[in-house]
């Protein structure tokens, strides 16, 4: 699994990279918002760990731009901004999880694994070979169904 960390604090970025690499992940690290956004748009990441207070482009804007571009990878916001208002804003903008610094690495790792499991379940459900959905049932269809619409006019 490939992760992108967007974190401008050098020690935190190195700590995350080391811990997640040791946990078996492939990790790229961007130290500012512009580079992080570029990597997120062009790379094939399974999950992004994103700080909010970043140079160049802040994390709020990165979440907004990624979701506007239909990038659906899970995003975990990892930030010192810990008020309820900040958490709600992050989740409503499209982040999948929100963890406040300081944090326990074991909790971060558990959240990363949970988000990746959820993402894998969605991919499996969407990629069942040979099945189409009419949006109303889970029955496989060999061809699109035609629906008659009647009017009282």
UniProtKB/TrEMBL annotation:
Annotated GO CC locations: cytosol; protein-DNA complex
Pfam families membership: Response_reg (PF00072)
An MF annotation (GO) of this entry: transcription cis-regulatory region binding
Cross-referenced PROSITE patterns: RESPONSE_REGULATORY
Residue span of region Disordered: 131-153
Compositionally biased region (Basic residues): 144-153
Official protein name in the record: Two-component system response regulator
Biological process according to GO: regulation of DNA-templated transcription
Boundaries of every Response regulatory domain copy: 2-116
Residue numbers bearing the 4-aspartylphosphate modification: 51
Keywords: DNA-binding, Phosphoprotein, Transcription, Transcription regulation, Two-component regulatory system
Keyword Transcription in record: yes
Organism: Escherichia coli
Domain of life: Bacteria
InterPro entries, sorted: CheY-like_superfamily, Sig_transdc_resp-reg_receiver, WalR-like
Gene3D superfamilies (UniProt xref): 3.40.50.2300
Entries under PANTHER family matching the protein: REGULATOR OF RPOS, TRANSCRIPTIONAL REGULATORY PROTEIN CUSR-RELATED
């Amino acid at each position: 699994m490939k992760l992108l960390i967007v974190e401008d604090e050098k020690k935190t970025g190195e700590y995350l990279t080391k811990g997640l690499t040791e946990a078996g992940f492939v990790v790229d690290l961007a130290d500012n918002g512009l580079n992080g956004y570029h990597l997120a748009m062009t790379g094939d990441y399974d999950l992004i760990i994103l700080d909010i207070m970043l140079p160049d482009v802040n994390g709020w804007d990165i979440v907004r731009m990624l979701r506007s571009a239909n990038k659906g990878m899970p995003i975990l916001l990892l930030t010192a901004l810990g008020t309820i208002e900040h958490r709600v804003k992050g989740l409503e903008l499209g982040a999948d999880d929100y963890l406040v610094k300081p944090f326990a690495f074991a909790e971060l790792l558990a959240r990363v694994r949970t988000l990746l499991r959820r993402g894998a379940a969605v991919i499996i459900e969407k990629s069942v070979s040979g099945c189409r959905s009419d949006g109303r049932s889970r029955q496989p269809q060999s061809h699109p169904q035609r629906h008659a619409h009647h009017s009282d006019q």
